[in-house]
């Protein structure tokens, strides 16, 4: 029997080794391919999530409004956004004259709710509110307030008494209640007599602070502001026909980038659901 020489086996070994190397290379290539696919899938996931986040980003509606509406609008915010998750309501509270000036100077706003008509009239004349959106949303009432412990002042006429040294009134140029106060006191023939006693406040909340802290014996504010404090009492409302009706107009601002959503929210503010909240806080439905 002949034994195979070592040289005769070498080609077979080389062939087997070559096949083994080929298989190993193929497996390694497959592993690399699979890992590359997984890596791509992982890398793509954040992009998908990011695009979904962008799609559900809420629309921010900025409402510039009088401070007297704060209690009502904060309650309305919860109700409205629960039904309209795509909307985020942001309120900018301030004297109506100041808010008017902000809009005139180009400040961002989607809706303007004024405590008086003159401010809205001025913006409308300049084309700064969207045509066809203006409404008379609500009505309010001017009242005389004193500290809850003050029992001496019982009427408008009592303000002329010598012991009454200071009477809070809003800044004439920016606080609509100040203009209504002047109109009322002129009708009652009290303006000239009381003018030396006036202490000017930048807004009605400052007038309330004056009265609450007894830095003023009395003050003039809206009924809807007065009822928010347990430290003051209402002496009397302004007499009927002593001033023009107090109307709170509302409109979509012409420069709004969210006109459709703003109009939709303005429509909701006129709904029975919203009106119940306004009326609970002392307002009356606008006419």
TrEMBL record:
UniProt keyword terms in alphabetical order: Metal-binding, Molybdenum, Signal
Database matches in Pfam families: SBP_bac_11 (PF13531)
Signal peptide: none
GO terms for MF: metal ion binding; molybdate ion binding; tungstate binding
A single BP term in Gene Ontology: molybdate ion transport
Keyword Nucleotidyltransferase on entry: no
Binding sites annotated in the UniProt record for molybdate: 68, 96, 177
Entry-linked PANTHER family: MOLYBDATE-BINDING PERIPLASMIC PROTEIN, SULFATE-BINDING PROTEIN
Family: Belongs to the bacterial solute-binding protein ModA family.
Protein name, UniProt field: Molybdenum ABC transporter, periplasmic molybdate-binding protein
């Amino acid at each position: 029997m002949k034994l195979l020489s070592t040289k005769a086996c070498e080609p077979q070994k080389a062939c087997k080794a070559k096949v083994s190397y080929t298989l190993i290379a193929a497996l390694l290539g497959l592993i690399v391919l699979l890992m590359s696919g997984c890596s791509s899938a992982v890398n793509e996931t954040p992009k998908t999530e990011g695009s979904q986040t962008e799609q559900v980003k809420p629309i921010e509606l900025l409402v510039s409004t009088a401070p007297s509406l704060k209690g009502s609008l904060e309650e309305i915010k919860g109700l409205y956004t629960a039904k309209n998750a795509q909307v985020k309501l942001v309120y900018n509270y301030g004297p109506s004259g100041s808010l008017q000036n902000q809009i005139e100077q180009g400040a961002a706003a989607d809706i303007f709710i004024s405590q008086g008509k003159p401010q809205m009239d001025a913006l409308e004349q300049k084309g700064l509110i969207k045509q066809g959106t203006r409404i008379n949303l609500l009505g309010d009432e001017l009242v005389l307030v004193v500290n809850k412990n003050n029992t001496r002042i019982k009427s408008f006429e009592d303000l002329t008494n010598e012991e009454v040294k200071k009477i809070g009134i809003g800044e004439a140029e920016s606080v609509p209640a100040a203009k209504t106060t002047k109109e009322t006191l002129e009708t009652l023939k009290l303006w000239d007599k009381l003018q030396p006693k006036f202490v000017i406040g930048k807004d009605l909340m400052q007038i309330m602070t004056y009265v609450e802290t007894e830095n003023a014996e009395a003050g003039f504010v809206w009924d809807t502001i007065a009822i928010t404090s347990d430290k003051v009492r209402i002496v009397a409302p302004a007499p009927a026909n002593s001033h023009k009706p107090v109307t709170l107009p509302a409109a979509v601002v012409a420069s709004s980038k969210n006109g459709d959503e703003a109009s939709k929210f303005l429509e909701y503010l006129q709904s029975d659901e919203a009106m119940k909240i306004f009326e609970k806080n002392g307002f009356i439905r606008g006419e």
